[in-house]
Amino acid sequence: MRWDDLFEALESESVALQRETRDADIADRTRSARAQTSWLMRCRGVDLSLRVHGAGVVRGTGVTVTPAWLLLRDGGPSDLVVSTSAVTAVSGLSDSVTELGLSSERMGWTHAWRVLSRDRSDVRITCTDATVVGGVAETVGRDYVALRPYDAGRPSGAAAVAVPYAAIATVACPR
């Protein structure tokens, strides 16, 4: 009987040690996997609150996420494209980490602006210095967009304003 009790105690200790080792391994692998991910990979499909340099706090659901920008939808009449380089803090990130979180790496600012220019969308850019520039994308360059100001849906006659992508905080555009 004493031997049975001793072997049972040793077996219980062994099982407990195996569980501790397994739990530590799982925790280590989880930390390692998180260290390999970007905050952007946790933005798609969740309600976010972003603090954006020059634009303040913006909120919405992450719809499209690229390394350069992310598209937020809040249920209003327009969407908000947010420059990832202007984001200073994020709340609401998904707990799940997946490679599917990012859209194509090739979808940079020029891609987004070509779509807005093609659709002749009247947009409002908030720059990182908090200035606002509105109009329709007239020229889409490698590192800038030139907006032609519009007034009541018609060109205002004012000169186009070139805005470097690096200066963009957010872009409000119709859905």
Brief rundown of the structure:
The protein has helices spanning 2-35, 109-118; strands spanning 47-52, 56-65, 69-73, 78-83, 87-91, 122-127, 132-140, 144-148, 150-151, 154-155, 161-164, 168-174.
Number of helices in the DSSP assignment: 2
How many angstroms does the end-to-end distance come to? Answer: 77 Å
Strand order of the largest sheet: 5-1-2-3-4-12-6-7-8-11
Average pLDDT: 86
Would you mind describing this structure in some detail?
- The chain is an alpha+beta fold and 175 residues long.
- It has one domain: SH3 type barrels (Roll), CATH 2.30.30.600.
- It is built from two helices and twelve strands, in the order H-E-E-E-E-E-H-E-E-E-E-E-E-E.
- The strands form two sheets. A ten-stranded antiparallel beta sheet has the order 5-1-2-3-4-12-6-7-8-11. A two-stranded antiparallel sheet has the order 9-10.
- The chain is rod-shaped, with a radius of gyration of 25 Å.
- The model has no long low-confidence stretch (mean pLDDT 86).
